[in-house]
Amino acid sequence: MPVHTPLRGLRCFCVAAECLSFKETASQLYLTPSAVSHQIKQLEESLGMSLFERQTRAVILTAEGRRFYQAINPLMQGLSATVAEFCQTKREQVVSITLPEFFASEFFVPRLVGWSAQHPAINLRLETVKSRQEVTKHTDLQIILASSKPTDKKAHQLFPISYVPACSADWYQRLMVDPLELPALETVPLIVHQARPWCWHQWADQAGYEDFRPKQIIQLDSMFSVARAAQQGLGVALIPLPISQAWFDSGSLVRLFAEELHTRDHYYLVQHDSSENRPEIQLLIDWVLARFCAHNHS
């Protein structure tokens, strides 16, 4: 007896296999989570095998589910491409990308100037997160900060990041003596992103300042808050370069010391497997690599 498998169930399965969340699958397909669960269950029954292992807060592919996804996904992509080719109406082209909030506002968006004129038919959707710990939505592309290159997906290395001590112009005048000594930092509040609570001590170690004993450390939950707090005179902050260069160029922040905290962190552009056959996504990848790679960015 032939097996009748609805195409909508296959599409639902492919999306769920990519984002590993029935809730997110429902959002992408404009369904309810229960409808997604029902379609997956029907598909499993028609195939006679379990595709997902259902856990309390997540789902993961079974071994059979992974093999089935690897076999069926190229066929579904080919089908979608064929339908798009014969469709009488012009397909709306949307590329979605997840990226850190501060990176987006201070570095990414300013370098999008010219994109709309060059690609007027491609719409962009930016999703921002405040830190690496925040759960990201499933998007076509991601820009992440990581200490090593991701190996589970296709990733392009962009550039490294370093941190420099900075404060407002008023604080700079208050601290400035000739010459400014490192112990001056023990007399002022020090501001840092809560994801890097020990980075002031790491900076002091790299600067050769032994037995560093800060007076007070203030942790904030976003890099934008860190930079704004320093600008408004709360204290001295460790500010990331090169993505904060505009703050220094405008005089909103003043650099205190030449010493930088160098880390292994780089920004990476991560590409999901499902985006490989969409030319509009490749256009954005090429745009980002041309403007953001270490040897290209200003």
Backbone shape: elongated
> CATH class of the largest domain, anyone?
Alpha Beta
Mean pLDDT: 85
Q: Please give the count of helices.
A: 11
The helical percent reads: 25-40%
Beta content comes to 15-25%
Helix-and-strand structural type: alpha/beta
* Radius of gyration from the alpha-carbon trace, in angstroms: 24 Å
Distance between the amino and carboxyl termini: 64 Å
What's the CATH topology label of the largest domain? D-Maltodextrin-Binding Protein, domain 2
| CATH superfamily annotation of the largest domain | Periplasmic binding protein-like II
Which second-level CATH architecture of the largest domain applies?
3-Layer(aba) Sandwich
Number of strands: 11
Uncertain parts: none
What descriptive keywords fit this protein?
D-Maltodextrin-Binding Protein, domain 2; 11 helices; 298 residues; transcription regulation; 3 domains; 39% helix; Arc Repressor Mutant, subunit A; nine-stranded mixed sheet; transcription; two-stranded antiparallel sheet; alpha/beta; elongated; WH_DNA-bd_sf
In short:
This is LysR family transcriptional regulator. The protein is an alpha/beta fold and 298 residues long.
Produce the secondary structure layout:
Layout: H1 7-19, H2 22-29, H3 33-47, E1 52-54, E2 59-61, H4 63-86, E3 93-100, H5 101-108, H6 115-118, E4 122-129, E5 141-146, E6 154-167, H7 169-175, E7 189-193, H8 199-206, E8 216-220, H9 223-231, E9 236-241, H10 245-249, E10 254-255, E11 261-271, H11 279-292
Parallel strand pairs: 3-4, 3-5, 7-8, 7-9
Antiparallel strand pairs: 1-2, 5-11, 6-9, 6-10, 6-11
Helix pairs in contact: 1-2, 1-3, 1-4, 2-3
